[in-house]
Design goal:
Structural class: alpha+beta
Low-confidence stretches: 121-167
Helix content: 10-25%
Number of strands: 9
Number of helices: 3
Strand content: 25-35%
Distance between the termini: 6 Å
Radius of gyration: 16 Å
Order of helices and strands: HEHEEEEEEHEE
Largest sheet: 4 strands, antiparallel
Length: about 180
């Protein structure tokens, strides 16, 4: 098998994360248009994630946040986003690097992106000896609903089930072996 010196897997993963960055940047500048809202799942202990000890104790492995009605001070940089949310009536400030994100889903238009969990771990300095991450998984369909940390009292409709004709496409399927 030929060596991939170009690293298409890294380029594709970065491009997919660029979609997240662009969508969040637009939301920070203009708010959420129409019925759009986002479910974002990330690894709680990934390098650079900042959560209060209370939230980390409640979500020790991963956490899903919903950006819909009640969030504030959304700031997006090249490598992370920061947002204010309320959990049980207590305001919190979260910092989430893009490499920590496992999935992004906008149920209003049934669009989602999913990243292999090992990608986020492999990119953290705490785990430098892991092998290179596999190619990202692009999903243009509903993702399975994870237990969500509600960001408001309004509960959005749960995502539709993936059995509605959705197809997960693995980019490595198209590589020559």
């Amino acid at each position: 098998m030929a060596t991939d010196h170009i690293r298409y897997d890294v380029l594709a993963r970065d491009a997919l994360r660029g979609v997240l960055r662009r969508v969040l940047t637009d939301a920070a500048a203009h708010g959420l248009p129409g019925e759009h809202h986002f479910f974002i799942t990330f690894l709680s202990k990934a390098d650079g994630v900042k959560l209060s000890p209370r939230l980390l104790a409640q979500y020790p492995e991963e956490m899903t946040i919903i950006l819909q009605h009640q969030f504030w001070d959304l700031v997006v940089t090249e490598d992370r986003f920061e947002v204010g949310l309320s959990f049980g009536g207590v305001p919190e400030r979260l910092v989430v690097p893009f490499h920590a994100i496992k999935s992004f889903f906008d149920p209003s238009v049934q669009f989602g992106l999913q990243f292999e969990p090992s990608e986020a771990i492999a990119e953290t300095p705490a785990s430098p000896k892991l092998p290179a991450a596999p190619a990202p998984v692009g999903v243009v369909a509903p993702l399975p609903a994870a237990p969500a940390a509600e960001s408001s009292d309004d509960k959005p409709e749960p995502p539709a089930s993936p059995s509605e004709g959705a197809e997960v496409v693995r980019l490595d399927r198209f590589r020559k072996k």
